[in-house]
Amino acid sequence: MKFTDEIARRRTFGIVSHPDAGKTTLTEKLLLYGGAIQEAGAVKSNKIKKGAASDFMEIERQRGISVATSVLAFEYDGKKINILDTPGHKDFAEDTFRTLTAVDSVIVVIDVAKGVEEQTEKLVKVCRMRQIPIIVFVNKMDREGKDAFDLLDEIEQKLELRVTPLSFPIGMGYDLKGIYNIHRKNVNLFTGASSKDIHSTTAISDLNDEKLNQLIGDPAAETLREELELATGIYPEFNRQEYLDGELQPVFFGSALHNFGVKELLDGFIEIAPAPRAKNAEERLVKPNEKDFSGFVFKIHANMDPRHRDRLAFIKIVSGTFERNKAYKHVRLDKNLKFSSPNAFFAEKKEIVDESFPGDIVGLHDTGNFKIGDTLTSGEELHYKGIPSFSPEHFRYINNADPMKSKQLAKGIDQLMDEGVAQLFTLELNGRKVIGTVGALQFEVIQYRLEHEYGATCSYENLNVHKACWVDGSVAKPEEMTDFKRVKSKFLCKDKRGQLVFLADSSFSLQMTQQKYPSIKFHFISEFE
Ligand code: GDP
Fold first, then answer.
1. Where are the beta strands (DSSP E) in 236-305?
2. Which residue CA neighbors atom 10 of ligand 1 most closely?
3. ipTM score here?
């Protein structure tokens, strides 16, 4: 197959949702269509149920054996589909944000009864900021939930989207009769049958067709006609370009559990979702069909087995062909590296592959060369943008609890930070180390992993920090900068990239500082223009 055809047939996306909305169930059903798995229950939920570190560790251990859950690839209708896993748990939101830099589109899953939930709001905001095309799937239509119009309203308001339904439910919950596929003009009847079955549909090109009454009964047919007429009046006509530009979001309804409405979603998805898109590097815009290879690391997965300390760095290919055993430039280290066993991911397994194309994810064995955000190229000096760090929510001093193991501790901290488990700040004044995390759970995870993987023990000490503020002195008056550094020396530190960070202890003190030094800019995010 030609290089350009390989690119054109790829669809790389993420499913985002609040925990329990049905992401795992939907993923599994999508894989069934691809024939990638044979039965339900094959996709492991990556859910942290008790909110405990032990839960996380268990999941990670399983993944260490089968890291395939991070990327699930399958073939459907001539398309190569790559689903990137995004943790729903809020403590791992940063991981999800990073994964969103590697997707070309997303499907947002919403529970019909619960409507738009907190985590969905946050994640969709990030997608909107990056103009990622979004498809919405309203799930659990087999249960009583909100009225379709009310829910579409809620999605528009809370998620600040402009929606248009491409399928429409006929009843819901106990009375769910089926789905009308607006896009393809057919009816899919709900039988509540086995979730493995692929349902057949009945074409209804004209809504006034009597056949509709025979299929779903007079009252339901009348209601559907009225609702669709109303919907046509309220919602804009679907326009693919607007969807691709992030200006219009199509909505599908269904029940992942019953494999209902999922085919409509999948067929719609492969028809409209974008092939790999061009990506901005600091130097220039890079197009997928360029001959030279380039890609970036968006995730690093450590092997949880202490006897095998290797890690897997996940690279999203942006341009060109990635080939096995060819030397590529690690731009940050200015070093050429060859990879003899790059992994590609299929439903539940990984395999060594000779060639991969834009849109694909390859897993490279790494002994400590990679950090999240690193760029790999055929030789060009490129730096992909867009994997910033956000201000953590929780901060603690980390102390060495075993003086004999200080080397192990330093190495462990270093590597865990490269993986993006948490952020490390080093105080300017005394060199003390501060760990910042999104959720409290990570502190336990770090302690556990330091002990089990590096043989080091640590203790924590509370530290009162409101926000980490990256200091932008690009237009600062020198005298303001000097005074700021002197007065606030106790609160200044460096992040892992060596950028200056001010740890403000309260919003009040941050406000006062901003007033006192108006020429210095403070950002809650590590990348700024
Ligand atoms: P995730 O946290 O988003 O991955 O959610 P899961 O896929 O694990 O689903 C959470 C729960 O909702 C599970 O008990 C599922 O069986 C259930 N569920 C998922 N989809 C549906 C659906 O369409 N209908 C009903 N009734 N339950 C569903």
1. 249-253, 279-280, 285-286, 294-302
2. 20
3. 0.99
Q: Report whether 334 belongs to an annotated binding site.
A: no
Q: What is the mean pLDDT of residues 305-314?
A: 73
Ligand 1 atom closest to the Cα of residue 17 is 3
Identify whether the C-beta of residue 523 lies closer than 8 Å to the C-beta of residue 472.
yes
For residue 484, report the phi and psi dihedrals to the nearest 5 degrees.
Answer: -55, -45
Q: Which one of 15, 18, 20 would you pick to mutate in the ligand 1 pocket, going by the greatest count of ligand atoms within 8 A of its CB?
A: 20
* Residue 327 DSSP code: E
Give 6's DSSP letter. Answer: H
User: What is the number of alpha carbons within 13 Å of residue 227 lying toward its C-beta?
Assistant: 20
* Closest residue by Cα to residue 306 from 449, 442, 416, 405: 449
Would you say 217 is a known binding-site residue? no
How are strands ordered across the β-sheet holding 349-352? 335-338, 327-330, 375-377, 294-302, 311-319, 361-366, 343-346, 349-352
Q: Rounded to 5 degrees, what are φ and ψ at 263?
A: -65, -40
Helical residues (DSSP H) of 357-430, grouped into ranges: 406-418
Asked if residue 91 belongs to a known ligand binding site, the reply is no
441-454 and 53-65 are packed helices; what angle lies between their axes, rounded to 10 degrees? 50
Residue 102, number of CB atoms within 10 A of its CB: 27
pLDDT in tens, 161-208: 999 999 999 988 888 888 899 888 888 888 766 555 555 667 777 888
What Cα–Cα distance (Å) separates residue 343 from each residue in 43, 314, 350, 351? Answer: 19, 9, 6, 5
Helices (runs of H) and strands (runs of E) counted in the chain: 14, 31
Q: What is the pLDDT of residue 64?
A: 43
pTM of the model: 0.85
Rounded Cα distance between 188 and 147, Å, is 19
Closest CA to 32 of 70, 104, 65, 81: 81
CA atoms of 375 and 385, how far apart (whole Å)? 9
Nearest atom, ligand 1, residue 19 CA:
2
